[in-house]
Amino acid sequence: MPENDALQRALKEIDLLRSELAGQQETQQKNIKMLQDNKEELLAQKEELAAMVDELSSQNRKLVNAFDLLRQRNNEMDQIIYRASHDLKGPATSILGINNLLQNYSGDAFIDDCCSHIDFQLLKMNALLNSLSSFSHVAISEPHMDPVDFHFILNDALEECSQIPFSNTMSVLRNLEDNLTFRSDSHFIRVILYELLSNAFIFRNYEKDGTVSVDVRMKEDTLTIRIHDGGDGIQPDIRKKIFNMFYRGSDKSLGNGLGLYKVKKCIEALKGTIGVRHEGGTEFTVTLPVEYYRP
């Protein structure tokens, strides 16, 4: 009968729907199980990541504490060097004076010879103490932006360079403005000029009269200093080392290897740059940011 056929078809469709629903339910249960497994895995990874974050935070705190302790120790060491070099200069100067008196009144050739050796060593010791004092001052000081009279500082640095042996055979060519004033740190500028000029005086070609040129330009808020000598230049294998602490790259060196290191520290403190060119001698180019100033 048609009614029975329709009923049979309806029952078959219901069975098919039941089968499809059962399959969908099975698939859904599998998906739920997969999601639960993924959730558990994610939770485990989250816990693992949290433990790693805690460990990294702990290590970071240790590094920060270690860095603070190291900075404190460095500051203490700078203070000790500054204090020791300052305190030792007094006794060294007194010994030098007593030695000169002994040399003047001895009248004995042997004693005079010994006094000369003592005098030479004391002068070297004084130079070292002065260098350490200057270095520690640079290390522990922050730049102070005050009016700078560049001509005054340059003349002062050249006056100190006049103590270098055979400096009277040197000529200095200046190329700079008459009224060159600006705001920066006078002491740091003085250290930069003296150390670069003294290097030019010391490492010149002794077989001929040397010439050092000082070229200074100020454009807006940038000061550029070029110091060129006609010496032998710097050998390629030591050029990368000249700004290292205590590095002495030549037998001509009269110092203790702190000069160019101090120059680098001063320039870094003033947020400037320094470059070296080797052509017909050595030329140092210093670029510093400064504040415009007119008295």
Number of strands: 8
The pLDDT mean sits at 80
Q: Span between N and C termini?
A: 120 Å
Question: Number of helical runs?
Answer: 5
Radius of gyration, CA atoms, in whole angstroms: 38 Å
From the spread of the alpha carbons, the general shape counts as elongated
What number of domains? 2
Percentage of residues in DSSP E strands = 15-25%
Overall SS class = alpha+beta
Q: What is the name of the CATH architecture of the largest domain?
A: 2-Layer Sandwich
Helix content: 55-70%
User: According to CATH, what is the topology of the largest domain?
Assistant: Heat Shock Protein 90
Largest sheet: 5 strands, mixed
CATH superfamily of the largest domain: Histidine kinase-like ATPase, C-terminal domain
Task: Determine and state the CATH class of the largest domain.
Answer: Alpha Beta
Q: What would a concise description of this structure say?
A:
By secondary structure, this protein is of the alpha+beta class.
